[in-house]
Amino acid sequence: MKLVLEIVLLASAGVVYSADDCKRDMEVVCYYGSWSIYRNDIGLFTTEDIDPSLCTNIIYTFAGLGLDSKIGSLDPWADVEKRGFANLTGFKEQYPCLRTTLAIGGWNEGSIKYSVMAYTEESRKAFADSVLRFLVYYGFDGLDLDWEYPTSRGGLPDDGKNFAALLKTVKETIAPWGLTLTTAVPIDVSLLNTAYDAKVMAEVVDYVHLMAYDYVPSTSNVTGLSAPLSAIKVTVGNWIAAGLPANKLVLGVPSYGRNYVLKDSEDHDVGDPVLKAGEPGLYTAEEGFLAYYEVMEILSDPFLGMRSVHVDDTNYAYGNEEWITYETETSVRTKAQYAVDQKLGGMMIWSIDTEDFLGLYGTKFPLLNAIHEVLKQNKLKV
């Protein structure tokens, strides 16, 4: 029997919501990096810092695969003991139209063990059954499958067809219980051609989240823009041409910057040589990576003398030997309007914990609010 949520009773307020009340014109998907609870000082971000009113779907990252190829917690202390899972799914008591999703995978999980899990029909079904039990037990509304990436990083050439089969198996298993299936996909066109069957995905998944950033990674030996709109347009076109309907494609934007150390401080244009990835941020502590609030801290320091340049509907800044590619409210508005014009399924942000969630440099969650401004201007319901 298919279990579909038609009416949600918000007991505390005595309000009844029908399925029609929760219909929306576009998605606003918010990824939450659960490891942000380990950051210090103003970087510390917990579920209490989330504003659920700004998201239609909050995705908790990440669960992982165990030795038995079944889903499991990667950090039981954060997820269970500190009630990360429960706090996130608990938002639905106050926001009954909100969806809370659990993501499995991510970069650090790698690809090989997902390749092994997806290799046989038996192991795919065992995984799907474990997903159903896990989601229901912890109260999530769906799964976001973030295998990075089929056919690469040690995977097999058969991963493409096995990934398609895995999606079908998971959807057939969880859909009868009203649970959704989404997946995150890369910008690499060679992966699109080998690892993903867009036509199958169009039939099976509810939404595809396009990670439209890191067009130039932190390992690059030259400066480059992380999220230039011209490149994004090509990538979106590639996915649609491959068979994915525009209304199932959700466009991702980064709430972080990539930084580099210039080889010569006088050579600071796009494409100029760099020595290495930039120094870690004080709070995020990752080379070549800065949270949006860390970028703003650097740009607002008059002693650093950073100069900002807006190009290709994104931004970079330079000063001395520092070079940063990042987004602003303006560039995010442009990308949101592009998503509206192309009738995409919505917008996604990676990630809410690297936003200016404290409002240190203006409005709280400025990038997310910029997305909402555009959608409201276009009279779209979210």
TrEMBL record:
Residues 26-378 form the GH18 domain. One of its GO terms (molecular function) is chitinase activity. Belongs to the glycosyl hydrolase 18 family. One of its GO terms (biological process) is carbohydrate metabolic process. The keyword Disulfide bond applies. Residues 1-18 form the signal peptide. The keyword Disulfide bond applies. SUPFAM superfamilies: (Trans)glycosidases, Chitinase insertion domain. It comes from Exocentrus adspersus. It comes from the Eukaryota. Keywords: Disulfide bond, Glycosidase, Hydrolase, Signal. This is GH18 domain-containing protein. GO terms for cellular component: extracellular region.
